[in-house]
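Lab channel / #folding
Pinned by the channel admin:
"Please post every new chain as: sequence first, then the structure tokens as a reply. Keep commentary short and put observations after the output so the thread stays searchable."

First post following the new format, from NK:
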Amino acid sequence: MCFDIMDFNLDSLVKKYNCSDYISGKYSIGYYDEATFLQVILPISEAFVSNTDQHLVIGYAGADGIEFCYRDNTMGIWAYYPYENNYELISKDIFDLASGWVNGNICV
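Reply from TO:
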């Protein structure tokens, strides 16, 4: 079971997941990459908190269930690999995630 982001107070999400760049920035409406046909960053209305409450899912890499997320009280954007139950820091913020995906600097 996952938890819909709209069930949470946005201020508490920002505090817990350090995600103000997403909540109040230009990517709150999401980012669709036409070249890869992938919704890399979800609109805020589709984001959700993992069932373990360990991360806030904000997007997908498009393969193997890999999620882009903010982690509880940890800075940056992470790739979560569910098969390995492992996290990898991939960018310092949402802007670097979008630009890094487009220019190929982020590969998962």
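NK: The radius of gyration is 13 Å.
TO: also worth noting, The helical segments are 10-17, 20-23, 94-103.
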